[in-house]
User: Fold this.
Amino acid sequence: QVQLVESGGGLVQPGGSLRLSCTASGFTFSWYIMAWYRQAPGKERELVARISTISGPTYYANSVKGRFTISRDNAKNTVSLQMNSLQPADTAVYYCNTRVGSSEAWGQGTQVTVSS
Assistant:
């Protein structure tokens, strides 16, 4: 059974940094694209960043380019999101995501709040 468990969220001041991690199990992690999404109150869930299978090509939403970095460690079955220069607009619940075959899997989410 595919499982994704996020950690690392919290409260941070504007301009600060956080690092989110997602630990995966139940599938061959290195075979699959991994992604981070976020959902702010009253808004739709949006794709933040995505990384291909062997730390190759990545995608970033325009709103986070130059501030966020996605990475993966296939030996540890983890995908991380380093978030720098955080802004109040980054406040959201952040979700780890993958698609295994026809099934889409989500973590439980981790709250990130950027506020002074």
